[in-house]
Amino acid sequence: MPELPEVETSRRGIEPHLVNRVVTDFIVRQPKLRWRVPDVKQLLCGQKINAVERRAKYLLIRFDNGTLIIHLGMSGSLRILPADTPAGFHDHVDLVCGDSCLRLRDPRRFGSVLWTDQDPQQHIRIIDLGPEPLSDSYNAEYFHAICKQRKAPIKSVLMDGKVVVGIGNIYATESLFRAGIHPARKACNVSLKRIETLVAHSKTILAAAIEQGGTTLRDFQQQDGKPGYFVQKLAVYGKSGEKCPNCDAILRNLKIGQRASCYCPQCQR
DNA sequence: AAATTCTCCTGAAGGC
DNA sequence: TGCCTTCAGGAGAATT
Questions:
Q1: Residues of A designated catalytic
Q2: Nucleotide nearest the Cα atom of A74 (by C1')
Q3: Contacts for A170-173 with beta carbons within 8 Å, 24 or more apart?
Q4: pLDDT bucket at A232, cuts 50 / 70 / 90
Q5: Closest nucleotide to A186 by C1' from CA
Q6: Neighbours of A75 (CB within 10 A)
Q7: What pLDDT sits at residue A216?
Q8: Backbone phi, psi, residue A252, to 5°
Q9: What is A246-257 written as a DSSP string?
Q10: Contact at 8 Å (CB) between A262 and A240?
Q11: CB A8 within 8 A of CB A54
Q12: pLDDT (tens digit, 9 = 90+) per residue, A42-74?
């Protein structure tokens, strides 16, 4: 699934192919994504792409007359292809610029394509989002202040996009393991000291994953061949039943907020 | 306000 | 072999 590192890598990959190009077509084969894809072909044709930005896991393709907002959901992927490449079954949207196009494929259709002619930072999906995880705004003091007033599991707070964006199930699971914090522990019961460790680890692991994504997704525009570039580095995610890499305990699985949470009962308290 | 549950959808995995 | 069931999962919406 596209985590923040993968979205950022996609952004870096498509940006040079799109900026300063002029849109010649906008093809929607399947409008039923997370929300109905708007019919903006007339608005887009003839428009020049000014920039490709990212906010949280949203990609922002900016034009003079508005912004296309793309979210990859959990199975979405973007590729730059020759415009005449035949579309596959799950290839739902093309943004065509002359002889090449940006193609969105999304088998599970949890992704979305939105349009706004206002400042995208003020968009309903974006305005209430928390700080970027790699920014200074996401720090121990900030996160601790929020945790103090939350009785929910620390993992749920870490994954709350209104608190901090881009930390999905995988990175929350890994960060908590590295920080030695039990994922179900009430957020208000985690000391500032331990929050410091957690915040530091979450930043480190995200930064490292972006590096990895940069390496393995470099040729993403050719094919989809990207078999989980970060998988080798994961210590516990998806490994319940296996041995903890730090001690000899067996990793356990727990459901927290509808999501699988693997943890070490020995190392994480 | 915060917490919990439900929802969208398909592919993969497991059972028989 | 193949059909059927179950379930993961980002994140907004609905509900308590």
A1: 2-3, 57, 259
A2: C10
A3: A170/A1, A170/A3, A170/A230, A170/A234, A170/A237, A171/A3, A171/A4, A171/A202, A171/A205, A171/A206, A171/A209, A172/A202, A173/A236, A173/A237, A173/A261, A173/A262, A173/A263
A4: low
A5: B3
A6: 15
A7: 52
A8: -115, 160
A9: SSSPBPEEEEET
A10: yes
A11: yes
A12: 999 999 999 999 999 999 999 999 999 999 998
For the stretch A154-203, pLDDT in tens is: 999 999 999 999 998 989 999 999 999 999 999 999 999 999 999 999 99
List the structure tokens of A122.
């003020």
Residues present in chain A in total: 269
- Phi, psi dihedrals of residue A92, rounded to the nearest 5°: -90, -35
Is residue A159 within 8 A of residue A136, CB to CB? The reply is no
Q: Separation of CA A58 and C1' C11 in angstroms?
A: 12
What span, in angstroms and rounded, lies between the C-alpha atoms of A164 and A130?
4
In this structure, what token pair is assigned to residue A227?
């078999």
